[in-house]
Design brief:
The protein is an alpha+beta fold. Helix content is 52%, strand content 19%.
């Protein structure tokens, strides 16, 4: 999947996260401003106590008592303003905020002081700077959270798409290998057909080997997708005869590499699936021929307990042995293949109740197929 496919997912996550962040940021901003207004109003009401103490002390209030405040004070007894810094045309609710200042209203009176009574409106200092500071802090917090969301989104998308990228890369490789594996024997067949008249026995052998290669590739791909419930017909099989037949099938490939074949084959009767047993033998023989060195040896032993196929040549690294039956695992790119043969072998062995073990050193590799799970 390219970036253009991941971009809509990223944008959707980004836009929804930004919308939620903006919404909750706005709610938090409103709450903080409301708290600022309430706190400012509460602090301004403390002014009433100081003014009231002056009123008790002097028996009346004068403009100088409000010199430190932006205030409008009306003498209710004498019906006049003793201070008039701003005008208010209508009654105000408690802690009224005009967008710039908080205005608090309170009354001061005492029956002991000749019925003097005052109505005072006191305006707070300009709160816009504090509100801007709140807005800036919320913006910084939201930006930090937003960047965190983007970072998390990036890694989430990257992690979630990684398996898909791996699958796509695998499919690309699989198609590339398939093309190569099919093209090679096809090229041999076409070339051999053109040169057939020059040396019929040689080029007929080449055609036969290439055709067998194509047949094995096809059967491996079919077996890979085979339903386990299919081809489960069990029958009596003379395994020694089947083994002789499959050795003959690979005889041309053995001759081309000048491989010496050593056999020790007993008569063995098994009740099993003919198709799956043949695929197990074919894949083990195919690997033995493929990885055997030129003029090397392949030894085949069959008795009632096991089938052993051993070949000379470069062995399998010790660290790779535990992984050779995994699907699509390949440790030797020089000899091609899909990495499915041994996986098919292991899967069919499990289904048929067999067990298989592999051993290898620098010079030999041996696969032993036991006709029992207990081995």
């Amino acid at each position: 999947m390219s970036r253009r496919h991941a971009l809509p997912i990223f944008l959707l996550y980004f836009l929804t996260s930004s919308a939620f962040l903006s919404f909750f940021g706005y709610l938090f901003f409103e709450r903080e401003v409301a708290h600022l207004i309430f706190r400012t109003g509460f602090e301004m009401r403390e002014i009433r106590r100081d003014i009231f103490m002056k009123f008790i002390e002097n028996g009346e209030l004068v403009a100088n008592d409000f010199k430190d405040f932006n205030a409008t004070v009306f003498d209710l007894k004498n019906k006049k303003f003793i201070k008039n810094d701003f005008n208010v045309s209508k009654p105000l609710p408690p802690n009224f905020f005009d967008g710039k200042n908080v205005i608090v209203e309170f009354r001061i009176n005492s029956k002991r002081h000749h019925g003097n009574e005052y109505k005072a409106l006191v305006k707070s200092p300009d709160l816009r700077e504090k509100i801007s500071d709140i807005k800036f802090k919320i913006f910084l917090a939201c930006t930090a959270i937003w960047l965190g969301i983007l970072l998390i989104a990036y890694f989430l998308i990257k992690l979630s798409l990684r398996p898909l990228y791996e699958k796509i890369e695998f499919l690309d490789g699989f198609l590339r290998d398939t093309t190569h594996e099919i093209n090679t024997p096809l090229s041999v067949i076409l070339m051999s057909a053109e040169l057939f008249k020059n040396d019929p026995p040689k080029y007929l052998a080449n055609i036969k080997t290439a055709a067998n290669t194509l047949s094995n590739l096809y059967e491996d791909l079919v077996a890979l997708k085979l339903n386990k419930k299919e081809n489960e017909h069990l029958e009596e099989i003379l395994l020694d005869e089947m083994l002789d037949e499959r050795i003959e099938y690979f005889s041309t490939a053995l001759s081309q590499k000048d491989i010496t074949l050593n056999t020790d084959i007993d008569e063995v009767l098994l009740v099993s699936s003919k198709f799956k047993l043949r695929k197990i033998i074919d894949n083990l023989l195919s690997n033995a021929v493929k990885y055997c060195n030129e003029k090397g040896e392949i030894s085949i032993t069959l008795n009632k307990n096991f089938l052993s196929i051993k070949n000379t040549g470069s062995g399998i690294a010790k660290e790779n042995l535990p992984h050779i039956f995994e699907l699509y695992k390949r440790f030797d790119e020089r000899n091609g293949g899909f990495g499915v043969g041994l996986s098919i072998v292991k899967g069919f062995c499990d289904e048929l109740g067999f067990s298989i073990k592999a051993t290898s050193d620098k010079n030999t590799t041996e696969f032993v197929l036991y006709f029992s799970k207990n081995k």
